[in-house]
Amino acid sequence: MGSRRKRSPWPLALLFRLAVIAAAVSLFMSYISLYINPSATSIPLYFGLYFIPLVFINLFILLLGIIRRSGAVWITFIVLLPSILFADMFVRWGEVNIGPDGTALKVCTYNVGTFTQGHKKDRNFNISGIEKFIASQDPHIVCFQEFYIKDTNEIKGILSNYPYRYYHLFGTRSNTKFGNITYSKYPIVNGGKLVFKGSTNLCIYTDIMLGGKTVRIYNTHLESHSISFTTLVKRMRESSSVTEEIYEVHDRMAGTFRKRALQVDSIVSHANGSNYLSIICGDLNDTPMSYTYNKLTNDKEDSFRQSGKGFSATYSLFWPLLRIDYILYPSPIWSLSHNTPRIRYSDHFPVVSELTIP
Are residues 54 and 159 in the same domain? Predict the structure, then answer.
């Protein structure tokens, strides 16, 4: 008679089943976070933030369940299957498909962190490094968020080989200015701004003349106000009480989710009211597993998912997992390349994509 597998004590088996269910429910909640407007409830969005850690937790439970020969492991296996559909939001391999011919437009978006959030905190050092980087990439369009200047007369001295620019900057108590600025090598024929109520985050748009047609560029920085997920990472790194920081920041983030949802809705509404092809780029302060991303990509492509390779992270303190900066565009436009060079002149990495405009 063959030997029987020794069963685990029932309390241990019960705890394992509870862990299976809790991890599976959490991962399922991260899936539906894409479709839930925070104005209804913000609870699923917290799970969306932790999509990748939740996938790894469930994979660990799956492996442990297989070793233990637990019947409950089927729950984990089933809940992990949909994660395959979302994998290319975070990591991508394979060849780049070539789209239709058209006019080339190379776009760079970069949250420059007021030029003080890099590996070195020296503003002049970071400005110089960023200018050299832009020169090496030679994009046609450069979108900066968290741009900082003491005097607007100094703007012409930064990226001086870009003759066209449009910006909206907020004043500070120290008489300095910060906000978004778009530089262009092509003529800017129109510009405007979407200022969000009760926020110093904003979106500016510029209409550029490109090969006889007008293309609209949205330069976007959505709600952060020092309570974004990036702030949570920073505070967890610096705090002696991680649990307390998580509770406090998550409490305040509920309001951020709702603000960001309203901001996204206003951008989508504005873009839908335009007859121009619209490219939306910038710092969305949200991961691909979010209402923000899902809303903006409802009728747009993502340059990383079309032509990126490897990991897609754009936030340096949590590389390689956290992607919050994007270049999005409607389907007639095609991305030939997508890069996030790991330069250290800000706490974000720039995103550079070569687009083809049919």
Answer: no
- The CB density around residue 229, as the number of other CB atoms within 10 Å, is 23
Q: How far is CA 179 from the centre of its chain?
A: 18
Domains: count for the chain = 2
Domain membership flag for residue 94: no
Residue 286 class from Cβ within 10 Å (0-12 exposed, 13-18 middle, 19+ buried)? buried
Peptide bond into 139 cis (omega under 30): no
Residues ≥6 apart with Cβ < 8 Å to 209: 186, 187, 189
Place of tokens 């369009």: 141
Give which of 337, 267, 339, 273 is closest to 296, Cα–Cα: 267
pTM tops 0.85, yes or no: yes
Measuring CA to CA, which residue among 288, 313, 328, 324 is closest to residue 48?
A: 288
- The answer to whether the beta carbons of residues 220 and 282 sit under 8 Å apart is yes
What is the C-alpha separation between 311 and 325, in angstroms, rounded?
Answer: 13
Q: Note whether 223 and 275 are same-domain residues.
A: yes
Residues 171 and 249 in one domain: yes
How far apart CA 89 and CA 61 sit, in angstroms, is 23
Residue 284 lies in a domain: yes
Q: Where are the beta strands (DSSP E) in the chain?
A: 91-92, 103-111, 141-149, 164-171, 177-184, 188-195, 202-210, 213-221, 277-283, 301-302, 310-311, 325-329, 334-339, 351-357
The string of pLDDT tens digits covering residues 142-198 is 999 999 999 888 898 999 999 999 999 998 888 899 999 999 999 999 999 998 988
Q: Tokens 């920085």 map to which residue? A: 221
Considering the domain boundaries, does residue 191 fall inside one? yes
Domain span including residue 64: 10-87
CB 72 within 8 A of CB 16: yes
CATH number at residue 130: 3.60.10.10
